Amino acid sequence: MNPFRTLASVVRFKRFELNGTKRRLATAANIADLRLLAKRRLPGGVFDYIDGAAEDEHTSMRNVSAFSAIEFRPRVLRDVGAPDPSTTVFGRSIPMPLILAPTGFSRIADQQGELAVARAAERAGLPYTLSTMATRSIEDVAAATGPGARNWFQVYVWRDRGMLKEMLDRAAVAKYEAIVITVDTAVLGRRERDVRRGFTLPPKIGVDTLIDGMLHPSWTLDLLRAEPITFANMRGTQGKDGKTAVNLSEYINSQFDPTLAWSDIAWFRENWSGPIILKGIQRVDDAVLAADAGLDGIALSNHGGRQLDGAPPPIELVAPVAEAVAGRCLVICDGGVRRGSDIAKAVALGADACMIGRGYLFGLAAAGEAGVDHAIAHFDNGLRRTMALLGAQRVSDLTSDLVSRPVGGEQI
Fold first, then answer.
1. What is the pLDDT of residues 229-256, one digit of tens each?
2. CB-based contacts of 160: which residues, under 8 Å, 6+ apart?
3. I want to staple 335 with a disulfide (CB 3.0 to 4.6 A). Which of 15, 47, 199, 314 is the partner?
4. Does residue 12 sit within a domain?
5. Domain span including residue 107
6. Are strands 330-334 and 403-404 parallel, antiparallel or unpaired?
């Protein structure tokens, strides 16, 4: 017996991948792996800005762990064939119930920033929500995507309504489909990782920054080769457009309007003709008020745990909110979504779609635009696999009968 022939019959050598990005992404089996890749590539302060949350970060952790408390009750012998995860949002089809959430200052993860995310979302056929605090403008994102792209614009409510009106008008001219009004930022949450590092946007350059930059050369070279980072949507704001480093907490507390109330929603109706979504709903009764006000959608969200530590995980609100609003508005679960199986759980409990923020931002930080593609494919493949294992051929088959959730206290 020839031992080499025997070995050759059972061993196949893996072909070496010359493309470093593909080689890196091949090691990322899930979003947690993308997070680790991002942590290796980014300077510590930048990673903590993306990864961190408010105070003790209990809410951020519970957003993720709350999904694991929900168990599946799969059906078998259901002839699932090739599951179809497509659904509709505002009367238009999307390939799966997933929306890319707004994330501010994305160019600190990768210099293509929001442009990379928007292009990846367009390829996948998914809506992408551009942040007011973006580092690429409303017009830049529109120019980087085609006429079929489903671009949404996230709105922080400024004290200066003239500036806010100008941004809404620009979004309308650029054919943005919907606006997403963030309502959980009366003041900025205390993000203690940023406090410890003295983090500003853009980051100030000090000795520690230089050393950290040298330890992360690919990120540093990417930054140095690109044009300066600014808050691209905030032109004409007297030096507060990101050209000068600002303390994020002080800046937001000086610019955002903490007097925003339900009566102000009418102003948005007068100045925006498309769908309006409220992002930051954390109670059933507020969800009902939003539906009563004729809002087109609500995003159950605690800002990724970055605002009020101790806020409820969105997945725990899905079922009671869906029951209370009874189909009068779109219900989006935003927070802690890390797998396609999480999307299946949220939809089974009554959500129309989920939002991801860190889920794609880790991909962007790990490998740029290809990393965002990788993250989206992870959710798509995971959802299809979960549907097949649950015996669900279509999204409409994802019903509450397929999940069991722990019995808790009354949620209001």
1. 888 887 654 445 555 555 555 666 677 7
2. none
3. 314
4. no
5. 33-66+90-195+227-385
6. unpaired
Q: What is the CATH number of the domain that holds 292?
A: 3.20.20.70
* 375 within a domain of the structure (yes/no): yes
Residue 213 neighbours by CB under 8 Å, 6+ apart: 43, 219, 220, 223
Q: What percent of the chain has pLDDT over 70?
A: 88
Say which residues have a Cβ less than 8 Å from residue 30's Cβ, sequence separation at least 6. 338, 339, 378
CB hemisphere CA count around 236 (13 angstroms): 6
The CA distance from 136 to 133, in Å, is 9
Nearest residue to 267 via CA among 115, 165, 405, 340: 165
- Give this prediction's pTM: 0.92
Q: Which residue has the higher pLDDT, 147 or 206?
A: 147
> Is the pLDDT assigned to residue 393 strictly greater than 90?
yes
In a domain, 43, yes or no: yes
Is residue 178 left, alpha or beta, with left meaning phi > 0 and alpha meaning psi from -120 to 50?
Answer: beta
Catalytic residue among 58, 216, 303, 374: 303
Q: Is there a contact between 412 and 283 (Cβ–Cβ < 8 Å)?
A: yes
Domain count, the chain: 1
Position 17 in a domain: no
303 catalytically annotated: yes
